[in-house]
């Protein structure tokens, strides 16, 4: 978690399920395209964002943190996982366009 090197996530299946869940929620709210634009533009800063999330995690845990926050932090910590998340989000947006 503290290295800049890409690490393999602890549980790929669980992380993929969280990516799917977050992507579906973003698309459901109609924010698929703005989210893709935002995450693609800040991709070089994703590692710093994940470290900020590590810093604020104790505060959020006191307020009732959840597993989605931890999974999203893991996604941002790795450039390869960030790319996979963007692909997942793009697929969810395409599926929404096909359905309706």
Describe the 3D structure.
This protein has 100 residues and is an all-alpha fold. It has one domain (12-99). It has helices spanning 12-28, 32-41, 46-62, 67-77, 79-99. Helix 2 packs antiparallel against helix 5. The longest helix has 21 residues, at 79-99. The mean pLDDT is 85.
Keyphrases for this structure?
100 residues, mainly alpha
Radius of gyration, in Å, reads 14 Å
N-to-C span: 40 Å
Shape: globular
Mean pLDDT across all amino acids: 85
Derived structural class:
mainly alpha
Number of DSSP-assigned strands: 0
Low-confidence stretches: none
Number of helices: 5
Largest sheet: none
Number of separate structural domains: 1
What percentage of the residues does DSSP assign to strands (E)?
Answer: under 5%
N to C succession of SSEs:
HHHHH
Helical content (DSSP H or I, runs of 4+): over 70%
Task: Annotate the secondary structure layout.
Blueprint: H1 12-28, H2 32-41, H3 46-62, H4 67-77, H5 79-99
The gist of it:
By secondary structure, this protein is mainly α. It has five helices and no strands.
